[in-house]
Amino acid sequence: QVQLVESGGGLVQPGGSLRLSCAASGSIFSINAMGWYRQAPGKQRELVAEMPSGGTANYADSVKGRFTISRDNAKNTVFLQMNSLKPEDSAVYYCHAKIWTATMLFDAWGQGTLVAVSS
């Protein structure tokens, strides 16, 4: 069994910063991509940023230049540094990972962490 545990969400004023963390644990053989999605009320879940193992990060146009994704592969952890936050960044942020166990590749999701940007 594999688990993704997120932390770091909260309430912040416009222009502020937050850092999200997500740690994967369990029966992990290896991890391909790790990343972050978000879902605002009434909207579909969308990709925010993703980083393949050993590859180049991919960002949504709306967050380029403001958000930075990074990974600590030794700790199976992914981070999302969010700067210059805007009210439209408010959403539940979900960690995602493509994980190999000993027998299969599957998509794992975290439980979600709420980011609220408001004055």
Please give a handful of descriptors for the protein shown.
57% strand; 119 residues; mainly beta; seven-stranded mixed beta sheet; four-stranded antiparallel beta sheet
Average pLDDT value? 95
**C-alpha Rg, in Å?**
14 Å
Major sheet characteristics: 7 strands, mixed
Please, how many helices? 0
Distance between the termini: 40 Å
Helix content: under 10%
Kindly estimate the percentage of residues that lie in beta strands according to DSSP. over 45%
The number of E-state strands comes to 11
Order of helices and strands: EEEEEEEEEEE
The shape is: elongated
What does this structure look like?
The strands form 2 sheets. Strands 2, 4, 5, 6, 9, 10 and 11 form a 7-stranded mixed beta sheet that branches. The protein is elongated, with a radius of gyration of 14 Å. With about 120 residues, it is mostly beta strands. About 0% of the residues lie in helices and about 55% in strands. About 30% of the residues are buried. The model has no long low-confidence stretch (mean pLDDT about 95). The chain has strands at about 1-5, 10, 20-25, 30-40, 45-50, 60, 65-70, 75-80, 90-100, 105-110, 115.
